[in-house]
């Protein structure tokens, strides 16, 4: 249940799904919600700044949002 997750444990769970299934962060979050019978809205409070950035990059890579210029890191 999402209510028992912290931002940190949710991030680790999603990161594991990304690695294990070769998903991007958007796919991993959707997968997590489907597997746990949750609405996306229920997990929004668990999305930290790091995950928001990874979601944004995934969305840019998929062409869902306009790519922003960023410094190479």
Largest sheet entry: none
Written as H for each helix and E for each strand, in order along the chain, the element string is HHHH
Radius of gyration over all CA atoms, rounded: 13 Å
Taken as a percent bin, the fraction of beta residues is: under 5%
Gap from first CA to last CA: 36 Å
Q: What class would the helix/strand composition place it in?
A: mainly alpha
Overall pLDDT = 89
Structure summary, number of beta strands: 0
Overall, the morphology is: globular
- DSSP helix fraction: 55-70%
The stretches of 5 or more residues where confidence is low (pLDDT under 50) are none
Q: Please give the count of helices.
A: 4
Give me some keywords for this one:
59% helix; 73 residues; 4 helices; mainly alpha
Task: Describe the secondary structure blueprint for this structure.
Layout (H helix, E strand, L loop, with lengths): L6 H15 L3 H11 L4 H4 L5 H13 L12
């Amino acid at each position: 249940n999402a209510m028992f997750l912290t931002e940190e444990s949710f991030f680790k769970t999603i990161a594991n799904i990304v690695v294990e299934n070769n998903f991007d962060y958007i796919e991993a979050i959707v997968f997590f919600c489907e597997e746990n019978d949750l609405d996306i809205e229920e997990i929004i409070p668990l999305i930290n700044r790091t995950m928001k950035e990874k979601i944004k990059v995934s969305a840019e890579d998929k062409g869902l949002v306009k790519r922003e210029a960023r410094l190479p890191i």
